Fold this protein.
Amino acid sequence: MASLTVRKLDDEIKAALKLRAAKSGRSVEDEVRVILREAAETPALAAGARPASPSEMSRPASHHRAPNGRPRVTLIIGGGIAAYKSLDLIRRLKDRGCHVRCVMTRAAQHFVTPLSASALADEHCYTDLFDSRSEFDAGHIRLARDSDLIVIAPATADLMAKMAHGHADDLATAILLATNRPVLLAPAMNPMMWNHAATKRNVAQLARDGIALIGPNAGEMAEAGEAGTGRMAEPLEIATRAATMLRPPRPQILSGTRMLVTAGPTHEPIDPVRYIANRSSGKQGFAIAAAAANAGADVTLISGPVDLDNPINVRTIRVESARDMLNEVQKALPVDVAIFAAAVADWRVANAGAQKIKKTQADMPPLQLVENPDILATISKLPRNRPTLVVGFAAETENLIANARSKLARKGSDWIVANDVSPGSGVMGGDRNTVHLITRDDPPDHAPDVWPVMTKDDVAATLVARIAQAIKKQSASS
Ligand SMILES: Cc1cc2nc3c(=O)[nH]c(=O)nc-3n(C[C@H](O)[C@H](O)[C@H](O)COP(=O)(O)O)c2cc1C
């Protein structure tokens, strides 16, 4: 066997080798060994084809580094019916800027092919622990470590049992035992399997081991006529959670702060099937609750009927009417900060029907309205347990600033976030908001603090930052 001295190689090749070795975290000598082994196992090269040029050699091996510094997600696909959804998950993760590398169990390959996963991920799909191509440098350890997050979808009952007991008899379980990276598990199985005492024990053990869990959801199963909890969370939900887990931790500027947020419309019954409502989507209040929780606050969100998922790490309580909302708000006290972003109905029907009002009745039924409790004013004027900072929202269609100032004075809140909801603004139900912040301490001639048009997420983050500043200022002066 011929020997090779790196020192004697051309300078250009040495430079390319050093760069490639640095990128893959190996010594130059080990990198040469890897290149030779790859060459020997590549049929065209073994048969005498042209060797790689220095610039080709300097390219990182695709299975070592994510191009452009994108976060790397290793997606382990288990052997369940929901495996077909994992192909969509690859796309969703890529949409969020992730570099995805797939690993399939032997059972998974009965449901989807490694070829499909490779084609969608643009990278070889790994299947075999004893694959000499990837194991010449302990590939399972590299796969375990060289990623920012490991997602298992679908996580079968069998995979969870093996994880909970520390098995490592195939590539997926060996990676999971060898990893020091965060792991997100998306279980999918028949409801009987999910509810089995053994699965429950394994899930509890995995939670104790610090494994994050998403789903399973309730619904119809693939097996005809079966329904219950066991459906894999939707790819979009899993990708969103993965993106959250990949985000660098935010500074916990609201750590130790108890916060209450209201959101959405209220529904005021006319009879058991009809109600008075408004166009509020709840998006702004949900975004504030999520941003506050991200900043470390202990958040309770009380929401009217909306079509939004509970924000992560937020205690979410769903209500129907203004009176229900006030009741839950009072139960949530004491808090340090209360943000009233809900569009609470001003009136309710005094004579709401106990039965459906019939169209056949001679006259149109007269709807008598009475005023609802004013949640913002009630809490702002509490003699005891008043939150230190009470923030109201004023949705106005005209005279925005004047109306918002008079609302601040009338209700007794500390701040008012005024937003223009005039027709054509697109705020109600939309994703953007134009906000003016008016505070009690502003002198009367003070120009309102106008924020540029922002997404509701950005409004939420800005408001959370302002609240953190105010709390800091207050604790410095007290
Ligand atoms: C048609 C079919 C569908 C299956 N679906 C599931 C499932 O949804 N969830 C599950 O936990 N197991 C399911 N199984 C059983 C697993 O495939 C089996 O436990 C296998 O050993 C799992 O291997 P793995 O965990 O290594 O992927 C299914 C089996 C078959 C034949």
